[in-house]
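User: structure tokens for Small integral membrane protein 22, please.
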Amino acid sequence: MEKRDLQQDFQNQFSDVVTRLSSKQLFQSDWDIASFAIFFIFIGMVLLLVILVLIRCCCCCCCDDKPKTRKVGIDNMALEP
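Assistant: Done. Predicted tokens:
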């Protein structure tokens, strides 16, 4: 029974998309426009973060001219509060 309902729902969704594409009126309500805008804002933010990570990994790692200092000696854990 659930499989038949799922198939019917899928067919209804598909026919709705086809009718919207054929009528060239993709957005029929304000909710359609809002969900479309939120979806593309989310995709844009994800792409921006990926680009920033790539810039950070590719450009900043090899540009550091500071000598790396290593810690010398041992930690005295008895002095810790």
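User: Anything notable?

Assistant: The first helix runs from residue 2 to 23.
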